[in-house]
Amino acid sequence: MTDELILRKKAKIKRKTLLAPDIYRITFETDICRGAKPGQFVLVYPKDGSKLLGRPFCIADTTAEYMDIVFRVVGEGTREISSCTAGDMLEIEGPLGRGYPFDNDKISGRTIALLGGGLGAPSLLFLARELAEAGSAAETAAYLGYRDKGFKCFLADDFRAYCMDTVIATDDGSEGIRGNVLEALEESGKNPELIYACGPLPMLKAVKEYAQKRGSEAYISLEEHMACGLGVCLGCVVKTVLRDEHSRVNNARICTEGPVFSAEEVDI
């Protein structure tokens, strides 16, 4: 689990934006994620008291004064959160989990690729800003995948704002390159030394195989349904080469040992 202080308190919604059908960006006025690392997440609790469990959302961006989440409506909890408006107060807990490793020794002078498939892009946006501010990578490019142009390439302009080469891929070719993010990366002819990726499991499996074949170092953020989000219920586990000291088996809890793992660590 992260060494950062985990807090739980109410935060005011500053702004809500509809980015694409059923995909929202909410900005909270809060300092709860002061010191958070890219790749970590928070639990947001719906106002309905009958829903006891918080919904996990990656930290799309944060400063000492605000925090952004970007999410798709998939159930009653996220639908209720999406119905909130500016001025509403919601309870937030975090920051939680382990984020992307990106210390200067790791990124300095290296070529880097960010691969975001579907709702994986929000997990990488905070990292994109940190990499841009560090300025020590030799080159950084983002590859963002969407099903079709109906998703309006949400967040693509945010990546571009960090002076980052941003390549769009869509399943049907209605925007950018036809195909997925790995096909877009291969078409670019680049062979990044360091990869950060978030997206559906089949995509992450392909990223792991790609990195092994190319000799790239890869870190992946696993998207998984979480119950408690605090490592107690063992409801979100992944097979790993390492033995978990909590369960005494070769499993890791995505909410605590993850959600970010070295691609070599996990058996996916």
Topology:
Elements: E1 7-20, E2 23-29, E3 41-45, E4 55-58, E5 61-62, E6 66-72, H1 76-82, E7 89-96, H2 104-107, E8 111-117, H3 121-134, E9 139-146, H4 156-161, E10 165-170, E11 177-178, H5 181-188, E12 194-199, H6 201-214, E13 217-222, E14 237-239, E15 251-253, E16 260-262
Parallel strand pairs: 8-9, 8-12, 9-10, 10-11, 12-13
Antiparallel strand pairs: 1-2, 1-7, 2-6, 3-4, 3-7, 5-6, 13-16, 14-15
Give a concise summary.
By secondary structure, this protein is an alpha/beta fold.
Cα(first) to Cα(last) distance is: 21 Å
CATH superfamily name of the largest domain?
Nucleotide-binding domain of ferredoxin-NADP reductase (FNR) module
CATH secondary-structure class of the largest domain: Alpha Beta
Give me the strand/helix succession: EEEEEEHEHEHEHEEHEHEEEE
Number of helices: 6
**What do we call the CATH topology of the largest domain?**
Rossmann fold
Tell me the strand percentage band: 25-35%
Q: Give the low-pLDDT segments.
A: none
Shape: globular
Rg from alpha-carbon coordinates: 18 Å
In total, how many domains does the architecture comprise?
A: 3
Which CATH-level-2 architecture of the largest domain? 3-Layer(aba) Sandwich
Order of strands across the biggest sheet? 4-3-7-1-2-6-5
- The overall strand count is 16
Mean pLDDT score? 90
Tell me about the largest β-sheet. 7 strands, antiparallel
Q: Approximately how much helix is present in the residues?
A: 10-25%
